[in-house]
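Spend some time on the protein that follows and explain the fold to me:
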Amino acid sequence: MEENDELNEEQNDDLSAGELTDNSTSDALTRVSGMYKDWFLDYASYVILERAVPAIEDGFKPVQRRIMHSLKELDDGRYNKVANVVGHTMQYHPHGDASIADAMVQIGQKDLLIDTQGNWGNILTGDRAAASRYIEARLSKFALEVVFSPKITEWQQSYDGRKKEPVNLPVKFPLLLAQGAEGIAVGLSTKILPHNFIELIDASIKHLKGQRFKLFPDFPTAGIIDVGNYNDGLRGGKIRVRARISQQDKSTLVINEIPYGTNTSTLIDSILKANDKGKIKVKKIEDNTAADVEILVHLPSGISPEKTIDALYAFTACESSISPLGCIIEDNKPLFIGVTEMLQRSTDATVELLKQELEIQLSELEEQWHFASLERIFIENRIYRDIEEEETWEGVIQAIDKGLKPFTKNLRREVTEEDIVRLTEIRIKRISKFDLDKAQQQLDSLEEKIAQVKHHLENLVDFAIDYFKNLKTTYGKGRERKSEIRIFDDIEATKVVIRNTKLYVNREEGFVGTSLKRDEYVTDCSDIDDIIAFTSDGKMMVTKVDSKTFIGKGILHVAVFKKKDARTIYNMVYKDGKGGATYIKRFNVTSITRDKLYDLTTGKPNSQVLYFSANPNGEAEVITINLRQVGSIKKLKWDIDFADVLIKGRASKGNIVTKYSVKRIELKEKGLSTLKPRKIWFDDVVRRLNVDGRGELIGEFRADDLLLIINQKGVAKTILPVLTSRFDDDMIVIEKWNPNKPISAIYWEGEKERFYVKRFLIETELKEEIFITEHPKSYLELVSTDWRPVIEIEFPKPRGKEPKESISVDIEDFIAVKGIKAMGNQLITEKVKNINLLDPLPYEEPAAKDTADIEVVDEENVDSGIKKVNQETTEEGDEKDDSEGQTKLF
């Protein structure tokens, strides 16, 4: 082994040195070194620095910078063919014309730096731009003002040495954040999201004033964004973007804004795919997008628009997440920084550029003032006459220099030979027309400008603030924020998915699945659902919906599993092993590990579930325990109310019911919910109740609360608020039932042929009763559940007479509350045109009864298991009988 190791080391050394190793039994293996070894690193560095990642100094990638430089060189105020600009850019960019044209189109579509003409494509629909020979471009006024300043630009030679190009453009604006940037290099990428033009300027001003600021993305496609995890644009952050979807009517949804990174074509494709997979149901899609987005999504009848909106966000490209990655180039090195630091650096760089421009402007003004002063001295004192007798150039220079010396005390710098040469170049015509007053005015004007520039330099921050304010005033119109910032609610896919699959169970063999069509039907489900199953030996499993899954023999209960569901309470009585005691427990299942088999008993062999029920709203029933006649047991039968058992976790042992053998357990009485009230909504489109916030809120329901239902046939009834209930189309009232609140009804009595009015209470729970007469011609005109309703009666216009004025009637004053079977009082004897329900009179509803004596379990306490109770009671407690013949467990 040691010899082999040494041999391998020697071979590795030889190979790393680039030598050839021959092997008679295999092909030759060559490892390269030298320049080959470094080429990949060189290539990666080139891609990072010269292609994919923008520079912090100006916010441009090299190709973008070269395009802007070419546009500036070609700029004469008129449009240039993009093909011509691309060809000109190829003098600086050593790549193909296609990449340059694509980069130019991307800049043009951002509508900031390039003034475009022709078909430049559409970011909303994804349509490509026309060929570069058909479209034209020129620099925008904003670009001319902000991007270029040749006097402070650092230049370098182009790739072939024939031209000079800028190292960086002197951009005096946070352009990188305004446009955004995205690029993939070798082992490195960047994704800087675009931000709002006006907000960037405001943030720059705040930074200059020493104030704090926050920046969030703003997208040209608008939409709604959640920036809660933006993390300042750093790696690890994330934002969520959504389309703006509204409901046009009961069967039509409208998409008016789309998420960033998508277009109408990809969005529609994702909706159609979700429809094909059965996640949502769509009848038809119309794309009417032109200047603005308009996608109409037509729904089949009976499909809830609100639920479909949530499903579109859950299963289509109507919602997506974007992970920013703030990477820029600084000093030829990649640097990861957040958008706050990017803006601070950009603003500080803008101040420095403005300072350089002011210093150059000051130098030029002082130079103009110096030469104008020399010119005035030269002409006013007729020094030009001193050169008439000079025969040599040196003599001319000396004569002028000698003539100027008595007058140069107030000049701001020494007179140079170059200054004197410029004086000799003044034309005779200018000397003859020299105006002393105009010359003084010019000097005064220059001095004012010099003083102004010096003031700007002394107050540089204020000058920069005014500069940004001017940009906002000049170019900010129409650049307001497009994307609305909002906090998104998390959408549970299992709640909004269309359940288009049926679930079956073979209880005896222990299989559950969608392919067991010959076995017992359980419920409708979807392919993304989880199912929960309980077996007779006290085992539980949660698994994904599949065609066929083995759970365990003797399945007691199967249902679709809802994550974090603290309202569904499982009531169970089990025997702890062979010959062991019998325990009772109540528990919920809020979190699990999928496909793990959980034991709900103590784990002893031959444990058996004697009673089991699943209660979607925490119901607690009453059961009867029947013992076997063994020995001298005095009590063989008693009742237990599950409401007396505290709700704990699934792993709890429970409380002892008895140590003796149980013969059977019977359900004596169905129970009511022991949980806190829950809010219930009614979705009018699908005519179903829900607890997901879709439709109109009906109210908060306790265990004994009922729904009041009234239909157009004059039938009133109270029902339990069961989510699976279905409601007919002729239902006109659905609300939480208040037994003390009277119902007011106006109906046409078929036999009397008159309108009657009545007020009544529903005194019988869970019963259906008709409150109009049963004559075939009787019909319900209107019904109100207001405490003090008011109606308006309109009369028909008699022929040839003035119409009678309508009258209003206070129903509470008109008739007292009577029984539901009473006919009521005749409303009016005259003919009636219309009866309208007006706004009710004010009424202060009586305070609700005190429910302090009712113990209600909070769902949060249920989930966390805060409440404690002894796990077991004494054997004496098992047998002790109270006055009502029930066993006290606690």
Notes: Residues 499-673 form one domain. Residues 339-380 form the longest helix (42 residues).
